[in-house]
Design goal:
Layout lengths: L4 E7 L6 H12 L5 E7 L13 E4 L8 H22 L3 E5 L1 H13 L5 E6 L3 H4 L6 H10 L5 E4 L2 H9 L7 E3 L6 H7 L16 E5 L8 H12 L5 E5 L5 H11 L5 E5 L5 H4 L4 E4 L9 H7 L4 E4 L3 H6 L6 E4 L4 H13 L1 H15 L4 H12 L1
Parallel strand pairs: 1-2, 1-4, 2-3, 4-5, 5-6, 6-7, 8-9, 8-11, 9-10, 11-12, 12-13
Helix pairs in contact: 2-3, 3-5, 8-9, 8-13, 11-14
C-alpha cells in the first residue's frame, strides 16, 4: 500500500505501567492500512504484548543512579534516536512520558527531521518533577514542548497545566486513556493460582499501581487497619516499585501481615481485580488513572480518594463507585466498610462500573488517536 505512513512510537520501555499498556493497545488497534508501525525503546524490557508486525528498535541503554552516567546516557540517547529518525524517515513520531518527549524533540532537532512530532503527556509535570535534578526535566519540558506539532493530554487537568506553561491551546488535544474491554473480559475470567487470597470466603480489597509516593499506599494500609477492626477482610496490592520495603515495614508495624499480600507486577491484573469486591485508588495526584476504567471493565466498584478533577469526571458517586473527599484514612475506611457490608449496593455499583467502562472502549475511540497520528 503506497500511501501507508511510517509511524514511530518512542517510550523508555514496555516493562509495566499505564502508559506502556496504552502503547500496547494502540499498536494492536491502529489501522494497518494507514501506516506501518515502529517502536523505539531505551531498553528492551517488554512485559506487554507487541504485535508481530511492529518493528522494534532498542537503544540498549539501562538506567543508572550515577548522575554523570545519567547525563552521558541522556546525550547518547538523543544521538541514537536521531540516527533512527534519519534511517527510517518517519512521517509521524509519537512519544510517551515526559523523558521520552523531551528526548524526541531534541533528537528531531539533531536529525533535522521533517517528521510530524506528536507527544503524549500523561501526568502532572509540576507534581512529578518538583525536587532535585528532576526539576531540570520540568524546565526542559516547559521550553521544548512548544516545538511539538501536536500534544495529546490525557485529561483536561493536564491540558490546563500545559496551557499554563505557555503552550498554544490549539496544539493540545485531550484524549482520555482507552481500555480494551473485550480483551479484559477474557483475561478477567482466568483462574488465580498464584495466591489463595480468594479462598476462605473473606472479602478482598484490591489496589494496583507502582509502589511510589504518588500512589500513597501508606494511606490505604492505615485505612485497611481500621477496616479490620470492623470486618474481616484481605488486601491485595498489585505492582512493584521502590517503596516495597517501606510498605512491608508499615504492614508489620500495623500488625496486619496475615491480611495483606503484595503480589508484584502481574501481566494480567484483571483476573485479580475482577474477583475482588472493591478496588481502591489512593493517589496523591493522577493525570488519568488508567486502572480506573480497567477496574470498571472488570465489573469492580471503585473507591477513590479525591485526587483531582479527572477522578470526579470518571466516577459517578454512588453509581459506579465512591469518591472520598480528601486523603483521610477514617473516611476511606468508612467507605470500604459500607460497601463490604452492603452487598446489594455493591452489586448495583458493579453494574454501574461495567456500564461506565464502555465509554472508554478502545474499539469505539481509537479513531481519535488515528485522527491525530495519521
Amino acid at each position: 500500500m503506497p500511501n501507508r505512513k511510517k509511524i514511530v512510537f518512542v517510550i523508555p520501555n514496555m516493562a509495566g505501567g499505564g502508559a506502556e499498556r496504552a502503547v500496547s493497545n494502540l499498536l494492536k488497534y491502529l489501522d494497518r492500512g494507514k501506516g506501518e508501525l515502529y517502536l523505539v525503546l531505551y531498553e528492551k524490557k517488554v512485559r506487554y504484548d507487541i504485535p508481530a508486525d511492529v518493528r522494534i528498535f532498542s537503544l540498549n541503554m539501562s538506567p543508572s543512579r550515577n548522575i554523570f552516567i545519567k547525563i552521558y546516557n541522556y546525550i547518547l540517547r538523543i544521538f541514537k534516536i536521531s540516527t533512527i529518525f534519519r534511517d527510517i524517515k518517519p512521517d509521524t513520531v509519537i512519544s510517551f512520558l515526559t523523558d521520552a518527549n523531551v528526548s524526541v524533540i531534541l533528537a528531531g532537532f539533531l536529525a533535522f527531521s521533517k517528521s510530524r512530532l506528536v507527544i503524549s503527556e500523561r501526568n502532572s509535570i509540576s507534581a512529578v518533577y518538583n525536587a532535585g535534578y528532576q526539576r531540570i526535566k520540568k524546565v526542559l519540558a516547559k521550553f521544548l514542548y512548544k516545538y511539538a506539532d501536536r500534544i495529546i493530554a490525557v485529561s483536561e487537568d493536564i491540558s490546563g497545566e500545559l496551557i499554563g506553561y505557555g503552550i498554544d491551546k490549539g496544539k493540545i488535544t485531550v484524549i482520555y486513556n482507552m481500555v480494551d474491554c473485550k480483551h479484559i473480559a477474557v483475561l478477567s475470567k482466568e483462574e488465580v493460582t498464584e495466591t489463595d487470597i480468594f479462598s476462605g470466603g473473606l472479602p478482598v480489597i484490591a489496589a494496583a499501581g507502582s509502589l511510589t509516593k504518588q500512589k500513597n499506599y501508606g494511606l490505604l494500609l492505615k485505612a485497611f487497619k481500621i477496616v479490620l477492626d470492623n470486618i474481616d477482610a484481605k488486601l491485595l496490592i498489585l505492582g512493584e516499585g521502590p517503596l516495597l520495603s517501606e510498605l512491608k515495614g508499615q504492614v508489620r508495624t500495623l500488625q496486619i501481615e496475615k491480611k495483606v499480600i503484595f503480589a508484584g507486577f502481574q501481566k494480567n491484573p484483571f483476573k485479580y481485580i475482577s474477583k475482588s469486591d472493591v478496588f481502591v485508588i489512593t493517589s496523591l495526584w493522577e493525570g488519568f488513572p488508567n486502572v480506573l476504567p480497567e477496574a470498571f471493565a472488570c465489573g469492580t466498584p471503585v473507591i477513590c480518594v479525591d485526587c483531582g478533577n479527572i477522578c470526579r469526571r470518571l466516577i459517578k458517586d454512588k453509581v459506579n463507585g465512591f469518591i472520598v473527599p480528601g486523603h483521610d484514612d477514617k473516611s476511606l475506611a468508612e467507605s470500604i466498610i459500607r460497601l463490604l457490608k452492603d452487598r446489594v449496593l455493591l452489586k448495583e455499583l458493579a453494574g454501574g462500573a461495567v456500564a461506565a467502562a464502555g465509554e472508554y472502549d478502545i474499539e469505539k475511540r481509537i479513531f481519535r488517536y488515528e485522527k491525530v497520528i495519521f
